[in-house]
Design a protein that fits this description.
Elements (H helix, E strand, L loop, with lengths): L5 E3 L6 E3 L4 E6 L5 H9 L4 E7 L5 H8 L12 H6 L7 E4 L7 H9 L3 E5 L6 H14 L3 E4 L6 H12 L5 E9 L22 H4 L1 H12 L4 E9 L16 H7 L5 E8 L3 E8 L10 E5 L2 E5 L13 E7 L2 E7 L9 H19 L7 H20 L3 E2 L6
Parallel strand pairs: 3-4, 3-5, 5-6, 6-7, 8-11
Antiparallel strand pairs: 1-2, 8-12, 9-10, 9-16, 10-11, 12-13, 13-14, 14-15
Amino acid sequence: MSQLNSFTDRTGGAKIDTSKKMRIGIIGCGWIANNHMEAYLAQPDVEIVAGCDLVPGKAEEFFKKYGIEGAKTDYASHKEMIDDKSLALDAVSICTYNRQHAAPAIYALDAGINVLLEKPFTVTLDEAVEVMKAEKRSGKVLSIGFQPRMDANMQQIKKIVQSGVLGDIYYIQTGGGRRRGIPAPFGTSFIADETAGIGAVGDIGCYSLDLVLNALGYPKPLTVSGYTSSFFGKDPEYSGYAEDKRKAYAEKFGVDDFAAAFIRLEGGIVLDFRIAWAMNLDTPGDTIIMGTKGSLRIPSTECWNGSVDKPMVIYHQVSGLDTQTEVPIIETTGGDLLVYLFDRKIRTFLDACKNGTPAPVPSSEIIYNQAIIDGIVKSAKLGREVEIEVPEF
């Protein structure tokens, strides 16, 4: 490979072959699409050739903002864009609201196009199953947008658990949240049932579930007893909304702003989970992973952002003495952490597509994450514990 066609990505990773550009389309040009666009533009082997959005003109304005010329954006739907064979798309990023995750993912995969699907995977378990069926039919890469996995501190948590230093894991407490953090700065797509479908439990709850489930190797969930509420989102006096939007947003709010659950996992492990977009508390607690030889405390953060900002602590015994070992924070980058994590999310997805290697965040794992979210919602509605059944693929 010529040195003229070889670049190192800006996160300091491996050399990138630029002799063939990956042709990328973006489905959904709202809030999170900005992070995708900026990360793609940082990759030397990418050509962003198309975009679409259900709102007329939105994709065109989005592409103009980034000075991208020659891209096609005059599509009325994701189907029109995917059906345009002149684009020769290699992959798409799906950045739509939650209820529009499944349909374009299935359509793109069935068209032989690789898919990077933003989190949460879908709204329901049934939808996630249908996406995975399309993935299997196509043989293409489907990766789910869990960029916290790319953080060195998240990876360190998995190393600690997998090393055996904690012994057999039997109890986990996880979650987190925001004191005033219902995401409605650009409208109601995150809080209206017809667009979001699920609230805090899917938006940031999926991250905290992935933190511990990934560390454990994603054991199968067996049962869930769940609870959800929406006291803050439906309150027209909620101070987290812009003052002139409070009444309208409160009336539109149709999802959860708090969720809690008790989940039984295979291997005799129990998971105590809670997540909040809004609460009268600074934090619902640290993440704790308890084992027969030691336990790990992972400090909560003010606003769950996919990393750890304070040292973790392992509680164990050394020569019969109760001991605490501090695990220092790994400084991954001197710049913006979110930028770094999105760069890694996009780069690892592109590498999987180009090299035919497994997805960096595979659906075979995240299906269990989605099954738990689905179970929490169902259990909360029924007012009782429910069993979780995930089909085999």
